[in-house]
Amino acid sequence: MPAPVSNRGFGPARHAELALLLEVAGTPKPGNVDRTRDLSALHFEQFLAGAVGSSEGLRLAERGASVGEAFETAVEGMSKQGGGNTQFGCLLLLVPLVKAAAEGDLSPEGVTGVAEATTIDDAVSFYRGFEHVDVAVGDPPEDAHDLDVRRGSGAESALRERELTLYDVMELSAERDANAREWTGGFARSFRAAKSILADEGPVTDRVSRAFVDLLTEEPDTLVVTNHGEKVAREVMARAAEVSDREEADALAAEFVAEGINPGTTADIVCAATFIALERGVPL
Amino acid sequence: MPAPVSNRGFGPARHAELALLLEVAGTPKPGNVDRTRDLSALHFEQFLAGAVGSSEGLRLAERGASVGEAFETAVEGMSKQGGGNTQFGCLLLLVPLVKAAAEGDLSPEGVTGVAEATTIDDAVSFYRGFEHVDVAVGDPPEDAHDLDVRRGSGAESALRERELTLYDVMELSAERDANAREWTGGFARSFRAAKSILADEGPVTDRVSRAFVDLLTEEPDTLVVTNHGEKVAREVMARAAEVSDREEADALAAEFVAEGINPGTTADIVCAATFIALERGVPL
User: Fold this and answer.
1) Domain count of chain B?
2) N or C end of chain B, less CB within 10 A?
3) B21 to chain A: which residues are within 8 Å by CB?
C-alpha cells in the first residue's frame, strides 16, 4: 500500500507521542481511561504526563538507539507521574514502529526486521523497564520462572545464559500475550486497525474509539485475561460485538468501568494503529 | 517564595508542553475547549497536536535560543493541524517563562529580565509568527497602523525604523491586551494563579478549572473584548463571579459555548500559571 505522506512534518517520535495522546483521548473506549472517564486510581492527566515523559525515549528510537535503550528510557520517563503504569504496553509496540518508520520502512516487513534484529541486551533493558512501574502480567510458563518479568534486572543472568534476544522473549510470550503476538506476527492487528482508522471519517478520537471496539471483538484482551480470566475476556468480546453505535459504546464503557474490566492491551494496539495512521497522513 | 523542586525530572520545555495539555484538559473552562467540549471549528485533538508541535520551539527556549526564534518555531509547529490558532497566546507567555526557568530564576523578576532583554529581531520574529496562523486581534492604535501585527513580516521595516524590541511592542499593547500586560507587569496574574493552583487540592485539571474561573472574574478577557466588545466582556466577568461550584461552572460552560463566547486570553494565563505550578512541584 503506498503510504500518503503526512503533511504535518512531524517526525516519527512526535507522531508516537501524539498517538499516546490521541489514544487516551479516544472516547468512548470501554473500560479504559478516556476523555470523559477516569479509573479510580488512574487519571486522564497522568496519561498526558506519561506521554510527555515518554518523548525522550521515543526520540532515541527515532535517532537509531537500540530498541531496549529507547524502550527503557521511554518507560522511565512515562513513570514520572503518580498513576503508575499508564502506557507501558503502548511503548512496547511504538518503539519498534518508530524505528521502522525512521528507517523508512513502516510496514509489516520493516517492523519485523526491527523486531528480529533485537539483541540479548535489548531483552535485558526490557526487563529493567519493569523496575520503573508495576505492570500487571500473568505467571510465566512452568519451565521459565527464571524469566518472570517481575524479576526485572534479576533475570539478566538467565537471559544471558539462555542467549535470549528481546524477539525470543516475545516468542516465548506470544501464545498468551497479544502485544507479544504483534511483535512476532508483523504487527498485523496494528496495521489492520490503522487501515480502518484511515478509511473512517470524522475526528481522529472518534475513529480511535470505533477501531478500539472493533479490536475488542476480535480476541480476548490479555489484561482482562490476566485480571479476570479467559471466561470474562470472552464475554467482553461478545459484549463489544453487540455495540452498534456511539450510545451503546458509551453504555458499555459505563458498565466496564463499574465492573472493573479494563481491556488495556486492546488500548495498546489501537495506540500502535493510531501511530501508523498518523504516519500515513490521517488529518487532524 | 521558596520553590519546591518538581520530582518529575522534566525540564522546563517538557513542563511547558505538559502545561499546554493540562490547560486544554482543565474542565470545565467556560467558553473554551475542554475535556468534554469542542468548539465548532476547534477540536480537543487539535490542541493535542498543537502541544506536541510546539515542543521543538519550547526546547529551543530551554536551550537558550532567543525569545523570538523559540516563539516563532513553536507557533510554526503548533499550526500543523487543521484547527488554526490553538495556543498562540499560551506560547507567548510560556516562552519567556521557560527561558527564565532554564536560567534558574522563575520569578517575576527573572521573567521580567528575560522580557526586557528582548531585541528588535525578537519583535520581527514575533510578527512573523502571525503568518503561520490567523490570530484574532483588535485594531492597533491610530498612530501605529504600520505596526499592525496582521502585517506579519511586512511590519519589519517599521519595527526597525522605530527601533522597537519585543518588550516595546508589548508595552504598546499593554493597555488593551492582557497577555502583553503579563509581559510588562512581571507576569503577576500568572504567578498569582500558580499559587492558587499549588494551594488547591485534587487533580490538576480540576485546579486549572477553578483557577480559570477565578481569573475570569478579575478582568475583561481580551479575546472576548476583541470579538464581542467591552460590555459583553464585563458581563462575562459578572457571570463568572456568580459561579460557586462545579455544577454552576458546567452550566456556564454550556451557555458560553452556545453564545460563542470564548475567553481565550484567560485560558492563556491559566496555561502560564499551570507551567509555573508544574515547575514548583504540583503533583500529578
Assistant:
1) 1
2) N
3) 21, 48, 51-52
The confidence score (pLDDT) of residue A219 equals 96
Residue with cell 487532524: A284
Q: What is the pLDDT of residue B143?
A: 81
Contact B10 A204 (CB under 8 A): no
Give A143→chain B minimum CA distance, Å.
39
The answer to whether B81 contacts A284, with C-beta atoms less than 8 Å apart, is yes
- Whether residue B256 has pLDDT greater than 60: yes
At A7, the pLDDT band (50, 70, 90 cuts) reads: low
Question: What does B51-93 look like in DSSP terms, one character per residue?
Answer: HHHHHHHHHHHHTT--HHHHHHHHHHHHTSSTT--SSHHHHHH
CA distance B176 to B138: 9
Asked whether the predicted pLDDT for residue B59 surpasses 80, the reply is: yes
Q: Which CATH number covers residue A149?
A: 1.10.4200.10
Question: What is the per-residue DSSP string for A157-199?
Answer: HHHHHHT--HHHHHHHHTTT-HHHHHHHTTTHHHHHHHHHHHH
pLDDT, residue B145, reads 87
Lowest mean pLDDT: which of A2-16, A232-246, B180-194? Answer: A2-16
Q: Compute the radius of gyration of chain A from its Cα atoms.
A: 17
Establish whether the linkage from the previous residue to A141 is cis, with ω within 30° of 0.
no
Q: Is B161 part of a structural domain of the chain? A: no
- The C-alpha atoms of residue A170 and residue A55 are separated, in whole angstroms, by 24
pLDDT in tens, B96-113: 999 999 999 999 999 999
Closest CA to B189 of B274, B86, B132: B274
Q: How many angstroms separate the CA atoms of B92 and B104, rounded?
A: 20
Residue A145 has a pLDDT of 87
Q: Does residue B224 surpass a pLDDT of 50?
A: yes
Q: What is the CA radius of gyration of chain B?
A: 17
Lowest mean pLDDT among A6-15, A120-129, B65-74, B184-193: A6-15
B53, A25: Cβ pair inside 8 Å?
A: no
Contact B49 A81 (CB under 8 A): no
Does A228 reside within a domain? Answer: yes
**Residue A274 lies in domain:** 12-279
Query: Which residues fall within 8 angstroms of residue A209, CB to CB, at 6 or more apart?
Result: A26, A27, A28, A29, A34, A246, A249
In a domain, A5, yes or no: no
Q: Considering Cα of A255, then A260, then A263, then A267, what sign does the dihedral take?
A: positive
Residue B36: inside a domain, yes or no? yes
Residue A139 is predicted with a pLDDT of 85
- The CA distance from B69 to B138, in Å, is 24
Alpha helices in B63-187 (DSSP H): 67-78, 88-102, 108-116, 120-129, 156-162, 166-173, 178-184
In whole angstroms, give the CA distance from residue A72 to residue A24: 21
Q: Report, as an integer, the average pLDDT of A269-283.
A: 97
